[in-house]
Amino acid sequence: MDKETKEEGRDDNLNEEKQNASSESSDVEDCSEMERLRRYLAQKLRLVDLPAGEQSDESQLQPTLRKLSLDGIVEYIKENENCKIITMAGAGISTSAGIPDFRSPSSGLYHKLDKYNLPHPQAIFELEFFMKNPEPFFTLARELLPEGFKPTISHYFIRLLWEKGLLLRHYTQNIDTLERVAGLPSEKLVEAHGTFHTGHCLKCRAPYTLPWMKEKIIEGAIPKCEECDEGVVKPDIVFFGEMLPERFQVLADRDFVEADLLIIMGSSLVVQPFASLVDRVRTTCPRLLINNEKVGMQDRLSRFLGLRQGLVFDAKSAHGGRDVAWLGDCDTGCQLLADKLGWRDELQALMQRERESLKAEDKSDN
Ligand code: OAD
What we know:
By secondary structure, the chain is α/β, with parallel strands linked by helices. It is built from twelve helices and nine strands. It has a six-stranded parallel β-sheet with strand order 3-2-1-7-8-9, sandwiched between helices. A three-stranded antiparallel β-sheet has the order 5-4-6. It is globular, with a radius of gyration of 26 Å. The structure holds 2'-O-acetyl adenosine-5-diphosphoribose (OAD). Residues 90-92, 95-96, 101-104, 108, 125, 173, 193, 238, 240, 266-268, 270-271, 291-293, 295, 329-330 line the site of 2'-O-acetyl adenosine-5-diphosphoribose (OAD). Pfam families: SIR2.
């Protein structure tokens, strides 16, 4: 090919490029710095989603939801025989058991702490504040002690998922131990914010049991360590300012990439790092929220940057199409899900059996 032809060819290409550039605003030549950064992050770090047509990962190969509704989720579970489900829960699954949540207007715990004269409501669960003044926490603990509360339909629904071999893991922020009372085996449970079950001396780390702590707390005393005679014994609840249990870190890394379905129940999804677990499932994994209100949604900045962060209930969005919000009471939502899956009788039988055995235990304790 001689020089002239080459030049002609180049001109043709240039003309074509000019035309394309003017007709297609999304042309690569027109990519803004932001778009380039977004693509870079998507490819290198897999941090953000590319628009549906540009995805090259597993999302094009695997089926997601046909209907963005509870029925769509039901269909999906029925069609995936070995569906690996992760459940994530917050205080909302225990409110029907009589335990208040934290942030609900007027009924939430953080709206009822005036009598403690705290600098701010969350201080009651802050390590720094506790070290200086443990009294408010132990006064509150008397009300919160896991005593006499019974698991709810939501707890038994989670147990039923386990019995059916569908539960990969249950991640809870709750410290009320109701998942254990409902009979969920400890290997299926991650108590992300710790538990009242055990305690430790803050000075010498000597371990203590719930019955020991309970006795002191009910007496109105601040539990003091009997080993070192100095430290305060704190239940193993994770306070703000403390690390989450190692089990949380290890299992979250392993589980979330494996999940086929994520069900989030009764949480405001505002406390980290728990809240961002929702972002750790694969981009193809459907996510069902059962809650009084929509929570954990993608914010505007993340949407603008195309970050894979937060739930996207808007199906029209480039990242939508897999998130479902069922708004209402957790127990009603779980019951409905069980009914639609054809598990109504099994759930009923399980609850009846368990409640009778809890009653029998109560009687033998008295
Ligand atoms: P929150 O009180 O922040 O949120 C509870 C959510 O559940 C809210 O969105 C309620 O609307 C909803 N809800 C309440 N009752 C419900 C019901 N019966 N049915 C459906 N939805 C219901 O509680 P968490 O998200 O669990 O941490 O709070 C997270 C963490 O904040 C807690 O673990 C605790 C707290 O500070 C520590 O103490 C470290």
